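[Q] Does anyone have a clean structure-token version of this?
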Amino acid sequence: MHYRQLGNSGLIVSELTLGTMTFGEGDYHGLKYTFDQQSATTLVNRAIDQGINFFDTADGYGNGSSETILGKALGEKRKDVLIATKISFRAGPQAFNAGVSAKHLIEQCGNSLKKLNTDYIDVLLLHNDDPVTPVDETLRSLENLVQQGMVRYIGLSNYQAWKASAMVQRQKDLHYTPFVASQMHYSILNREVEREFIPMSLHHGLGMMVWSPLSSGFLTGKYTRQNPQPEESRLNSFDLGLFDRELGYTVVEKLTEIAKQKDTTPTGVAIAWLLAKRVVSTVIVGVSKMEQLDSNLDGAQIQLTPEEMAAIDQLTQLTPSYPATFIDLQDKNLLQSKRFV
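[A] Here you go.
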């Protein structure tokens, strides 16, 4: 396992993070929870043995049980690893039990600490924006949590680039602890973050924690034109509609070709592609079966050649939209002289 700096911070995280969205019992709108306490503990120990030092959860995962299961699975190993959790989605029937208000953030952070059986959260992320809470209220609440020692580092997830940038600038204005991480969906089949979010992240020093790097399992290669709904596969019941399936089949064919040359799997190639991106600090791997962990681990060991990266890039290259189209009209002498971001 290799390790990287999380954004512009001193925190060093493993290139792969174990996601715990599948910890619990039952399902969430079709997403099946497949790890009870015993199997989750086995998976967590296996991940640690393989060098993973970062674990990602959220207050709502597993209908609220994921944090509890992760805390018990780590036990005394808590001090040897890092935990990220997220707050924003609804946590109760009362109108105020959602969002990123001072009330919700502070109370839910306290609840997460209890469930995780820990005194502090290494990385706390805003799981989603809300349409009501003023930015200053959210940032002041996060700063209070940091100053009290309940949280070490902070970040955000699923935010629009303009809002994230405005919040980082406001943190600077108020001399608050800055965001160092973002948790965003990024994969070969969905590269929308490349338009605005990634340039903003590089400017402000936000390291990306990638979620759904395999597009809900599509890039594993088990989905084909001949078998579009393989048995017991996640997309059969939990499909967020984040990519073009027909293009996806073509991409999987290329990944399979490259994987054969490198004696690995399409999964490994897809993760290696992400790890080659400068903005990526860590890739969150979520598994529904124990054996899937190994194919994910392969991705951290593969080095794609520039030619292989280009071949994959060309398949899903974004079409520039205004105002990005004017980048090509920037002065050539100025572009050639550029040395710093």
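[Q] Thanks! Anything notable?
[A] The chain is about 35% helix and 15% strand.
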